[in-house]
Design a protein that fits this description.
By secondary structure, this protein is of the alpha/beta class. Helix content is about 60%, strand content about 5%. It has helices at about 5-25, 35-45, 55-65, 85-90, 110-120, 130-185, 195-210, 215-220, 225-230, 245, 255-280, 280-295, 315-330, 340-350, 355-365, 365-375; strands at about 25-30, 50-55, 70-75, 100-105, 125. α11 packs antiparallel against α12, α12 crosses α13 (about 315-330) and α13 packs antiparallel against α14. The chain is elongated.
């Protein structure tokens, strides 16, 4: 390698690292009406930072239209707009408020320092300033700002990661629910589409009750989407009932009816087993109440516990209407499907006996929507 080539390589390398260092340097805006202070400050800082000496606050704001410094050194005592006014304006301007500001001042009283810190300055450096002290203060605050930005970025990334994981878990939960619901419906060939339709009815009831302010105090802490999704597990206990009973082509006898009714208690056991492994979970809490109470009656004549009135969990009272309506409008081996008008009359006439009167009022207002869901699934 020739000496000339070595020199060219050395020059290119030096230029590269010089440019890289310049690109990595932080930018300091030095604002002071005193020309001597500006010159001294630039001389001290120029080896490590990109420095923009600025003789007034007004010119500083002109520069800030196109420049975003990493830190501002701001003199307090200046003609026109002083440092306090300039800092207040900086902090009231959203796109400039995060720029850290260190005051330069010859004032030594505590009131002045307290006022500046109260306005948002991060530090004070006395004038005439010591070069080593000024560099040290700037270095400390730029490191702190860099760490703050790194922490902010980390938190943003963490929140994004949590959101992604939460969405993944939500999709997994929905997929598992759909699979369980499909399994129940696959085994019970007499009730095809029942889970999907009752879910739609539940959503209609929940939304309308909320809009009307009915039981809103109880639902205020609910995520209505979660409650609606949880309704898919209301008949999960049917997994334990034999095919001979589930798919019997006719009415069940008394013994078979007793066994069929165990699907409620068995469903509760299944959900509790899941909850034991998963831990506290709003979705499973709602599912447990829907499954356990959807065959209770307002007048106390239901099962399995014979609860009455508002002792029946609200989730169960809602599902009772959705469940019975769908059973009425669906055909079975032992009965023909009711018309939606006939099903409407059954629900209305059941107010105060089988069903919660307030929820029957809710149903009455959206009966046409129930009928639409029933007809679309035919």
């Amino acid at each position: 390698m020739t000496m000339r080539f070595k020199n060219e390589v050395s020059f290119a390398r030096d230029e590269y690292f010089s440019t890289k260092i310049q690109a990595e340097r932080k930018t300091i805006l030095l604002v002071d009406d005193n020309a001597t202070s500006l010159a001294a400050g630039k001389q001290i800082l120029k080896e490590r930072y990109k420095v923009y000496p600025t003789p007034s606050a007004e010119i500083m704001f002109d520069l800030l239209e196109n420049l975003r410094p990493d830190l501002i050194l701001l003199d307090i005592e200046m003609p026109g707009m002083d440092g306090y006014e300039a800092l207040a304006k900086l902090k009231s301007t959203p796109e400039l408020a995060s720029i850290p500001v260190i005051f330069l001042t010859s004032l030594c009283d505590g009131d002045s320092e307290f006022k500046g810190l109260g306005l948002g300055a991060i530090d004070y450096v006395g004038k005439p300033f010591s070069g080593s002290l000024l560099m040290r203060r700037i270095d400390i605050h730029l490191r702190m700002e860099a760490q703050r930005q790194e922490l902010k970025t980390f938190n943003n990334n963490l929140q994004e990661l949590v959101s992604v994981r939460t969405e993944q878990m939500r999709k997994l939960q929905i997929a598992l629910l759909d699979t369980i619901a499909d399994l129940v419906e696959f085994r019970d060939s007499n009730t095809g589409g029942h889970v999907t339709r009752t879910q739609h009815y539940m959503q209609l009831l929940l939304n309308e009750a909320w809009c009307r302010g009915i039981y809103r105090d109880q639902m205020a802490s609910w995520n209505l989407d979660i409650v609606m999704l949880s309704s898919q597990l209301h008949d999960v206990g049917k997994i334990t009932v034999s095919d001979a009973i589930l798919n019997k082509p006719g009415k069940l006898n008394e013994e078979e009816l007793v066994i069929m009714r165990t699907h409620v208690s068995e469903g509760v056991k299944i959900i509790r087993r899941i909850a034991k492994n998963v831990g506290d979970n709003a979705f499973l809490s709602h599912a447990l109440l829907v499954a356990s109470a959807h065959h209770e009656r307002w007048d106390g004549g239901g099962y399995p516990l014979g609860l009455s009135g508002q002792d029946i969990p609200l989730e169960g009272r809602l599902m009772a209407i959705a469940d019975v309506y769908d059973a009425l409008v669906s055909s079975r081996p032992y009965k023909s499907a009711y018309t939606t008008d006939a099903a409407y009359e059954v629900i209305i006439n059941g107010s105060g006996s089988q069903f919660d009167p307030e929820l029957v009022k809710v149903f009455k207002g959206i009966a046409a929507e129930f009928a639409r869901v029933a007809k679309e699934s035919c």
